[in-house]
């Protein structure tokens, strides 16, 4: 039976440290979250981030814009936040409405305030690292950073392991694969339509599921004792499910993260950690 890795507990240790550091600062770090549209899940995420900021003493500003907001108007709002001295980190909640180009918007955020590390300059900066990246002092995408911290919180050694990442998005799959490689894993990246997906995932000492398809990963796809990280978020009615068949896979895996309560809390903790890091860099 797998050890269930509680992201709430691990993230609380991180946020407690952040709260202590912020309490000693004369100037409080500031985070602005921009949400365009009325997607219910996005509103839940944004409210959770705002609450987390308040809990650790980070100044939070929530900017809610209608779904009809033009791309130019959104870029103007980002420009104002770039120039706002009270704001250290800017997060544009994705996805954006179809009429707004995400790449254009993400590139408009000042790289020095790009809290989720999605600006092309920041992506290039961390992806050109050849030495092992120090998670504590490096600006990295929040969810992938949280995944690595969650794995390493157990004392599990990533170096030399075979890792299979199912999901190739620029938000989660690709940066997670890079960070695993940076820590010495041999990484295979798959997606939901990969031929022989079962056989590929079975080779993994570490299996990361980040597609957004309920029960995509089943027990017969998991190597005995594997470390399984479920990043999927699938809302069905009032319930949230991951990409992994949790009950059955738990009987095979060595470690497994639940949904909810696994990676999600770590993502928010990394958002706070990155905000603090940006504040320290801009106001040394």
From TrEMBL:
Location of the Tetrahydrofolate dehydrogenase/cyclohydrolase NAD(P)-binding domain: 141-281
Its EC number(s)? 1.5.1.5, 3.5.4.9
Question: What does it catalyze?
Answer: (6R)-5,10-methylene-5,6,7,8-tetrahydrofolate + NADP(+) = (6R)-5,10-methenyltetrahydrofolate + NADPH; (6R)-5,10-methenyltetrahydrofolate + H2O = (6R)-10-formyltetrahydrofolate + H(+)
Q: Which UniProt keywords apply?
A: Amino-acid biosynthesis, Histidine biosynthesis, Hydrolase, Methionine biosynthesis, Multifunctional enzyme, NADP, One-carbon metabolism, Oxidoreductase, Purine biosynthesis
CDD domains xrefs = NAD_bind_m-THF_DH_Cyclohyd (cd01080)
Share an example GO biological-process annotation for this protein.
tetrahydrofolate interconversion
- From the UniProt record, give the pathway where this protein acts: One-carbon metabolism; tetrahydrofolate interconversion
The record's InterPro entries line, in alphabetical order, gives:
Aminoacid_DH-like_N_sf, NAD(P)-bd_dom_sf, THF_DH/CycHdrlase, THF_DH/CycHdrlase_cat_dom, THF_DH/CycHdrlase_CS, THF_DH/CycHdrlase_NAD-bd_dom
Query: Which residues of this UniProt protein bind NADP(+)?
Result: 167-169, 233
Residue ranges occupied by any Tetrahydrofolate dehydrogenase/cyclohydrolase catalytic domain in the UniProt entry: 5-116
GO function terms (MF aspect): methenyltetrahydrofolate cyclohydrolase activity; methylenetetrahydrofolate dehydrogenase (NADP+) activity
Per its database record, what is this protein's job?
Answer: Catalyzes the oxidation of 5,10-methylenetetrahydrofolate to 5,10-methenyltetrahydrofolate and then the hydrolysis of 5,10-methenyltetrahydrofolate to 10-formyltetrahydrofolate.
Q: Which family does it belong to?
A: Belongs to the tetrahydrofolate dehydrogenase/cyclohydrolase family.
Please describe the quaternary structure of this protein: Homodimer.
Protein name, entry field:
Bifunctional protein FolD
Species per Swiss-Prot/TrEMBL record:
Candidatus Roizmanbacteria bacterium CG_4_10_14_0_8_um_filter_39_9
